[in-house]
Amino acid sequence: MKKECRKAVIAGNWKMNKTPAEAKALIEEMKPLVADADCEVVLCVPYVDIPAAVEAAAGSNIKIGAENVHFKASGAYTGEVSAEMLKAVGVEYVIIGHSERRQYFGETDQTVNLRTLAALNAGLKTIVCVGETLEQRELGYTEALLKYQTKIALTNVTAEQLKNVVIAYEPVWAIGTGVTATADQADEGNGFVRAAVAEAYGADAAEAVTVQYGGSMNAKNADELVSKINVDGGLIGGASLKAADFSVIVKAASK
């Protein structure tokens, strides 16, 4: 991390877990454990949990986010939720383009860009996910792919809006698999993302943007991962469902 230049962010991605009552209980358990954090603490929860999560987190340093957002403000999009709807219920952050959205729900680089613009235009902060598959890595396409995905995601995003963008490098081969990129691989991937931002917005903007690592970061490997200069925190899956584990990761990013 390079805290003198940019903010460290630890964000939990609960995926399809926890009822509203369970969400409230988990947040109440987490609040005292992360109260002294020297990093941004975010919990991205299922839509149905948002009101309970916002209420439970009120008055604390925990920010509540959503796991997806539609790119239209309204219309015939059954089952979808707009950025204005999220903002209206107290959401501050939203995850966009997670590998599971790409894999299971047809998300593309272009729709990631549209969702990013919709969220930013509504005043939400975005956590934009990019990452390569194992096959793409083995073929040597990691750098080219990460730069392409990053630049497409940020198309038409202004330099001012970029201040509300967090980018999460999440190698697809390390999502929910228990396989973690080495700290050097994470740093390298995050560095490719930062280089893409530099090419699009300049070196100063690249130094200021927060780039998380998002592939099976946990209580055991968090210290080593966040010690790397380009790793500005993490997008945390399974470990964010356990208060004790999540707090260890937050503490690692608070050093």
In words, what does this structure look like?
This protein has 255 residues and is of the alpha/beta class. It has a single domain (9-239), classed as TIM Barrel (Alpha-Beta Barrel), CATH 3.20.20. Helices cover 42% and strands 15% of the residues. The protein has helices at 20-34, 50-57, 83-88, 99-105, 109-121, 134-138, 142-153, 183-201, 203-208, 222-226, 243-253, and strands at residues 9-13, 40-45, 62-66, 93-96, 125-130, 165-169, 210-213, 233-236. Strands 7-6-5-4-3-2-1-8 form an 8-stranded parallel β-sheet. α1 links the parallel β1 and β2. The longest helix is centred in the C-terminal third of the chain and has 19 residues, at 183-201. The termini are close together.
Overview in brief:
It contains eleven helices and eight strands. It is α/β, with parallel strands linked by helices and 255 residues long.
